[in-house]
Amino acid sequence: MQAPTTVNPVQRKASRPRADALRNRERIVTAAREVFVEHGPEVPLDEIARRAGVGNATLYRNFPDRDALVREVVCSVMDRTARAAEDALAETGDAFEALERFVHVAADERISALCPMVSSTFDQHHPDLEAARERVEDLIEEVMGRAVAAGQLRPDVGVGDLMIAAAQLSRPPAGTGCLSHDRFVHRHLQLFLDGLRAPARSVLPGTATTLEDLRQA
């Protein structure tokens, strides 16, 4: 008589290391974002590992060099910011509310402090970075177009205008007192957003700034 087949208990535990590894990776990215904002992109990686509560070997197993870690931080921030706008649009269908959510979450995520690291540290055309950037740009173009069509947004502003103003109003950049600046940011951003509402109360000088204008600047 053939012995009954037994289930290998190791297979039931196979997912645990992957879940632990994912949590470690998320802790590293979260800690890196905080440290980069506080001290800039050149902070020692062992400080990031310490902040994340992992060993240096774990950090390097996930991110072989500084460029890989900075890129992951910037991409994750752009993804969360885009998701905030998508969620607002799905919840209410209000394009201007989605635009407001995007701008305020972008400030909370420190995009103005983190994105300049891209041009100074690594290839701006890395596929992951380009995909994250394209998602954000396409989404904001769609949201602004819907807001204009609904009569909510003045038609003489472009995506570039929004990006420049949001970045300037949510400064200072990394390592220059971001935390003490927080109490002003959302107040000033809301003043800016109110100025975008239709009908326009003034005529803007120049022409609307596009994403292509920003790339050529």
Question: Overview of this structure, please?
Answer:
This protein starts with 8 loop residues before the first helix and ends with a helix. The chain has 217 residues and is mainly alpha-helical. It has two domains: 16-64, Homeodomain-like (Arc Repressor Mutant, subunit A, Orthogonal Bundle); 67-216, Orthogonal Bundle (Tetracycline Repressor, domain 2). The protein has helices spanning 9-12, 15-39, 45-52, 56-62, 66-92, 95-108, 111-114, 116-121, 127-149, 159-169, 178-196, 211-216.
What is this entry, summarized?
This protein has 12 helices and no strands. With 217 residues, it is mostly helical.
Number of strands: 0
Percent strand equals under 5%
Mean pLDDT: 84
Strand count, sense and closure of the main sheet? Answer: none
Radius of gyration: 21 Å
The CATH superfamily of the largest domain bears the name Tetracycline Repressor, domain 2
Cα(first) to Cα(last) distance is 80 Å
Assembly category = single chain
CATH top level of the largest domain? Mainly Alpha
Structural class determined from secondary elements: mainly alpha
Per CATH, the architecture of the largest domain is Orthogonal Bundle
- The sequence of SSEs as H and E is HHHHHHHHHHHH
Helicity range of the residues? over 70%
Q: Please mark out the parts with pLDDT under 50 across 5 or more consecutive residues, or reply none.
A: 1-16
Distinct helical segment count: 12
CATH topology annotation of the largest domain: Tetracycline Repressor, domain 2
Shape: elongated
- Tell me the count of domains: 2
